[in-house]
Write a structure and sequence with these properties.
Length: 943
């Protein structure tokens, strides 16, 4: 066990409790504060403000922000079953210091203050949640916004916030029926569509959302019930361009190595269920049971064509008899059946701009027609029971038990077509031109939609080490299980005649287990030939007009695989076997928090000081795999783990320096656990007999090598300081805030090459000259820092002139900078997920039942996580973007239609694309995705 009670912990502890001592010293001059229960600790408190529109939603959020003892941002529902945006992530991305990365056009994961999704913890009603992704980052589109009453984003922690994140903590809160205080029945319906239509055959461009919510109280208001159901069927489309990269041509200029463009049509289906049973028979007992369940299905159809260009290469008959000259040399690089397929050739006369070849003609192109499918089925179950018992006037006791689980199954299917297998089949001549967006447009000579020309085959011979002659596709079927079991005991002691109004004590124990099963298969044609697509699986051709290619052959790829017409051969390679893992964490947390309610030299002072003691026992399981020969791997089970104790002091101080004017100061030590796939015990290794000679050294030309995870990883650690000044005005209908923060990252996890002793590892009977080599693995390294400024203002415009009643605006901007240098031998870098500049703005009008709102959010360039080769994690530079949404509506406030409201929405109003690029040069586009605009019309009715 490693106990990291270092000097910095002692300094932080001293700072926190030194400030508390200052409070105690000044207590003689202070007025004695009455002991009260801290309002902001209960999820129900936000729901006490009845919200029925945009302005009331903003007012409720402002009130919750002002009353919280931590620095927070809050989203409140406009009405029961109606949060301001179509998804939780969209709403979160409008908050100061919060950004969102779009995935396939949808808002899914968030970054807080420049730190990526894995540094943010998500809670449901104050309890840590499982995640459907491969790691800790929460995919917020799993949670129907219609079933939530509010969302609180904690930017500073306190010691009673169990499961806090290093970047921040997002608490999703369902409504509490007794706090709501009245009966409510609401139904919502929306119909949506995308303006670029259904881009693939057999898909749709329209969908529906509907919700029903019910809240009521019984037994003289001592028993409350809240029930909700939300369904969503949401289509989304994209035109996607992907470049392999940009190598140097023989003349030194850059050119495109290859391209893989698609059109994608997707449908997201989700059914969510929420239930809350709340019982408060008297003032001493309060018990709540809540349940949440979500079924999530996402189906993506992708069709396009892959063109190997500069990196295409030639292919020769593997059975040639000439051992001196290759087949292509014999034929002088002329395409000859069963002998030679020459490599792509760029004709002279191409166009160069600033060192980049932007137009010309390619000969000898062998395209690969792609019909792919991505399918995800997942479900989340979350159950919780919380009971509070007021033992007497001074003591309140609490018990919380919770359980959550996610199960996820994916199908990632690729199928390949072409004019013939590897060295056979017609070649194409492509004219090309790069557009201003970095997308390459082509002119072709072949008809890629002709079912008599294009067949299912291995056009490039890829995967021939497993499938003779090459694979015709690939299927990856990973699955995830994630489970959390937790229990918490709490106690609150009311104090009298003290600067502290109360003290909270608590103990929390949780067990989390997450496993990843890595099943992968090559696809082949029985007998090793080609397969013309049977007519029953053929679909209308797919238009690639945005690329310049008229059409490509389209068919039901999954139906074809399920028909048995293709062979599935399990990938036997070592890296696939080593991709299976399970990580288990047992975390015991004890905390104490002293709550301040005091007058400091005549000024009201509130807040808290406290300490968390977090003991972790982590274990990683996996497989150690070695590639013995082509298609053959040796596999053995492997385990590892670590135990450690972290002590996390924290303090929050709020000084009311004027009428509704607050100065906040917070200091804390926080942690974020490493990525779970980094904590896997799995690793693969190799022994290269060709390097087993006298020239071998452990770091140069060693026959040994490998890579994998590290189950002994310790967490990321940061010491954090926050300062915020807030002024509330217009009866707390508006506010202005300026905040600054600094996070000193004491440690950071990075990938490192380390010396490893391979003594005893198999060599295939060869005696190794040395036993050491390089192993690539995650390691704890040095840290760095992240700092930023945040400004936000929310104002009803009638404070400027009565004629502007109903108008208002919300604006925020943040400037963030960072530097991390985990490896002293390499230069410092910025943090992944960090945009230096982020801005959000909303203008709204609401009066006489009319509602209108337009919102925009901007984030500058950042290093984002995207899916790379084999669906693996890849970091790429993402271009700046500005996304604009708008909404108009009307609510009938009297007459027979009272309670009915209608609305119309448009998301991505300006059709903002998503773009990644390489080497800091935005001309070198890697991904360019255009999503179109999504429109929705709907109604809400409240009984």
């Amino acid at each position: 066990m490693s106990q990291r009670l270092n000097r910095r912990v002692r300094l932080l502890s001293g700072a926190a409790f030194g400030a508390a001592a200052l409070v105690a010293v000044s207590s003689a001059q202070a007025q004695t504060a009455a002991a009260t229960t801290q309002a902001d600790e209960q999820p129900a408190e936000v729901g006490e403000i009845v919200v029925t529109g945009i302005r009331r939603s903003i007012e409720a959020s402002i009130s919750a922000k002002a009353n919280n003892t931590s620095i927070v941002e809050v989203i409140s529902a406009e009405d029961i079953g109606k949060l301001p945006d179509v998804s939780i992530a969209e709403s979160l991305a409008r908050l100061p210091g919060v950004t969102m990365q779009r995935l396939d056009g949808r808002s899914q994961q968030i970054s807080i203050r420049g730190l990526g999704p894995d540094f943010t913890t998500a809670l449901l009603n104050g309890r840590e949640l499982v995640t459907t992704g491969d790691n800790r980052g929460v995919e917020f589109d799993q949670f129907p916004s219609e079933l939530l009453g509010s969302v609180v984003v904690y930017k500073t922690p306190d010691s009673a916030l169990v499961g806090q994140g290093l970047a921040g903590t997002v608490d999703l809160r369902t409504v509490r029926p007794l706090a709501y205080g009245r009966q409510a029945i609401a139904v919502n319906y929306r119909h949506e569509w995308n303006d670029i239509g259904a881009l693939n055959s057999g898909t749709t461009d329209s969908g529906d959302r509907y919700t029903i919510s019910y809240i009521d109280q019984f037994m003289d208001g001592t028993l409350g019930v809240a029930l909700g159901y939300a369904h969503m069927s949401s289509p989304y489309q994209s035109e996607r361009f992907n470049a392999w990269g940009y190598p140097n041509y023989s003349d030194g200029n850059l050119l495109t190595g290859g391209v893989k463009p698609y059109v994608m049509s997707s449908e997201l289906e989700r059914d969510g269920y929420m239930g809350v049973l709340e019982w408060r028979p008297n003032d001493r007992i309060h018990s709540t049971i809540d349940a949440f369940y979500s079924e999530f299905k996402n189906t993506q159809v992708l069709r396009g064509i892959e063109f190997p260009l500069a990196w295409g290469g030639l292919a020769e008959s593997p059975g040639r008899t000439n051992t001196v000259l290759g087949g292509c040399q014999i034929t002088n690089n002329v395409a000859t059946p069963n002998v030679c397929r020459p490599g792509p050739s760029l004709r002279p006369g191409y166009t160069v701009e600033d060192g980049l070849i932007v137009a010309g003609t390619w000969d000898n192109i062998k395209g690969v027609v792609r019909n792919d499918l991505n399918k995800r089925d997942s479900n989340i179950t979350a159950l919780g029971w919380n009971t509070e018992f007021v033992a007497n006037d001074d003591w309140t006791l609490g018990l919380d038990v919770n359980y959550s689980k996610v199960e996820r199954n994916d199908i990632i299917l690729e199928t390949n077509g072409g004019t013939g297998r590897n060295i056979n089949g017609a070649l194409d001549t492509l004219g090309f031109e790069l557009t201003d967006d970095g997308v390459t447009r082509f002119t072709s000579q072949l008809d890629y939609a002709d079912p008599t020309l294009i067949r299912i085959t291995s056009a490039q011979g890829w995967g021939s080490d497993v499938i003779p002659g090459g694979q015709v596709g690939y299927m990856n079927t990973p699955s995830i299980e994630d489970e959390i079991k937790a229990a918490r005991l709490t106690a609150n002691r009311t104090l009298h005649q003290s600067p502290f109004k109360s003290i909270d004590f608590g103990v929390n124990y949780s067990e989390r287990s997450k496993s990843f099963v890595n099943d992968q298969y090559y696809l082949g044609v029985p007998g090793g030939g080609d397969l013309f697509v049977p007519s029953e699986y053929l679909l209308a051709p797919t238009d690639l007009g945005y690329l310049g290619i008229s059409q490509v052959l389209s068919y039901d790829a999954l139906g074809l695989v399920n028909s048995g017409l293709l062979d599935l051969v399990r990938n036997p390679n070592a890296d696939v076997a080593a991709g299976n893992w399970e990580v288990t964490e047992k975390v015991s947390t004890a905390y104490v928090r002293a709550n301040i309610d005091h007058n400091l030299f005549g000024l009201p002072l509130t807040g808290n000081v406290g300490m968390q003691f977090v003991y972790t026992d982590q274990q990683g399981q996996g497989f150690e795999a070695q590639q013995i020969s082509q298609g053959v791997a040796a596999v053995a089970e492997l385990t590892g783990g670590a135990e450690y104790l972290e002590i996390l002091p924290s303090s929050n101080f709020i000084l009311e320096v004027g009428d509704d004017m607050f100065a906040r100061f917070a200091v804390a030590r926080t942690l974020a656990r490493p990525r779970m796939d980094d904590m896997r015990a799995s690793r693969n290794f190799s022994f290269n007999a060709g390097n087993n000679n006298a020239n071998a050294t452990p770091t140069q030309n060693s026959p040994w090598g490998g890579g994998g995870g590290n189950p002994e990883l310790k967490p990321f650690i940061a010491d954090v300081v926050d300062v915020s000044f807030e002024k509330y005005f217009a009866n707390r209908k508006g506010y202005v805030s300026l905040a600054a923060f600094y996070k000193n990252l004491e440690s950071y996890v990075y990938t490192r090459s380390v010396l490893f002793d391979f003594t005893g590892y198999p060599t295939g009977g060869v005696t190794p000259v040395i036993n050491e080599g390089v192993l690539t693995t995650p390691e704890n390294g040095d840290g760095g820092w992240i700092k930023g400024l945040e400004f936000s203002v929310s104002a009803p415009f009638d404070i400027f002139h009565p004629a502007l009643e109903g108008f208002g605006g919300v604006f925020s901007a943040s400037q963030t900078d960072s530097e991390v240098q985990p490896d002293p031998a390499n230069p410092p870098t910025t943090l992944p997920g960090l945009s230096e500049t982020v801005m959000n703005g909303t203008l709204y009008y609401e009066r006489y039942g009319f509602q209108a709102r337009v919102s925009g959010r901007y984030r500058s360039d950042f290093l984002g996580e995207v899916a790379g080769f084999g669906n693996g994690r890849t970091l790429r530079s993402v271009a700046a973007e500005t996304v604009v949404d708008a909404q108009v509506g009307y609510e009938f406030q009297s007459g027979p239609l009272e309670g009915l409201s209608i609305l119309a929405q448009v998301n991505n109003l300006t059709d903002e694309p998503f773009k990644t690029f390489e080497n800091g040069d935005e001309r070198r586009t890697i991904d360019y995705q255009s999503y179109g605009r999504t429109f929705a019309v709907g109604m809400n009715y409240r009984f």
